[in-house]
Design goal:
The strands form three sheets. Strands 6-7-8-3-9-10 form a six-stranded mixed beta sheet, sandwiched between helices. Strands 2-1-4-5 form a four-stranded antiparallel beta sheet, with helices on one face. The protein contains ten helices and twelve strands. About 35% of the residues lie in helices and about 25% in strands. It has a domain at about 95-160. The N and C termini lie far apart (about 70 Å). The protein is α/β, with parallel strands linked by helices. The protein has helices at about 45-55, 75-85, 100-105, 120-130, 145-160, 175-190, 205-210, 230, 235-240, 265-280; strands at about 5-15, 20-30, 35-40, 60-65, 70, 85, 165-170, 195-200, 215-220, 220-225, 245-250, 255-265. The longest helix has 17 residues, at about 265-280. It is globular, with a radius of gyration of 21 Å.
Length: about 280
Amino acid sequence: MTRLPQLEVDVHGLAYATETRTLVHGVDLCTASGEFVGLIGPNGAGKSTLLRMLARVLPRTAGTIRLRGRDLDTLSAREVATNLALVPQTAPYTQGFHAVELVLMGRYPHLGRLAAEGTADINTAMDAMCLTETDSFADRTLETLSGGERQRVFLARAVAQHSRVLLLDEPTANLDILHQLKILSLVRRFVDEGLTAIAAIHDLNMASRYCDRLVALSEGRILAQGEPAAVLTPAILAATFGIRAEVYADPVTGSPVVSPIGPADEQVRTHETTQGEEQHE
């Protein structure tokens, strides 16, 4: 009998609304151990809101979130932190802290009450900084770092947290192309070793290359989910992003590549214009 993989995150009917607007509508989503799920969609689609609800940063207005079979609401803050690590889209401007001090904060969920970091915690933090190539500025204060460097420090903190699930909101924001590749390759490596990652990714081709599954969101609703080749189709891209695009297989990696051509309504206008010209003739 084949054993099904352990579900790390299981979401049903998840919704979030403000007084004037519903930002997420009835989302159903589950992720297995060792899976990299990419959230794609235009600005305002609800990707960041969804991640913040999963991390219990935002209170949901409807639905359930189960973490390894347990209701997220029944877990203590320490239990949530030992299981989930969130890397925000924009690294907060944390003044006065050195980079290594921020990374060490990722060890707090594993420390006893009022306990200080030990040698093992310091070693874990430094290992995380080496993996994210932030060790060279460990002793610099955060305000002296660029946006991309701060982003990598916050990722190092999440790595040092040793959580089972990584929630990443635009993890490559502010990074140059080399560090984009390195960070997503690192996340892919963690996933291959058994962690689960859910990431909002703006670059469709990066998402296609590194993720096992994509979830297309638009106006707070899931329009499609599945393997990259099943989601990155001209029809789904038009419905999700409002673009006309061609999709082809990368000659090196074999993953789908999206080549945007123009707005989807531009094709409609062109077709209508052509028809009008033919009728006029």
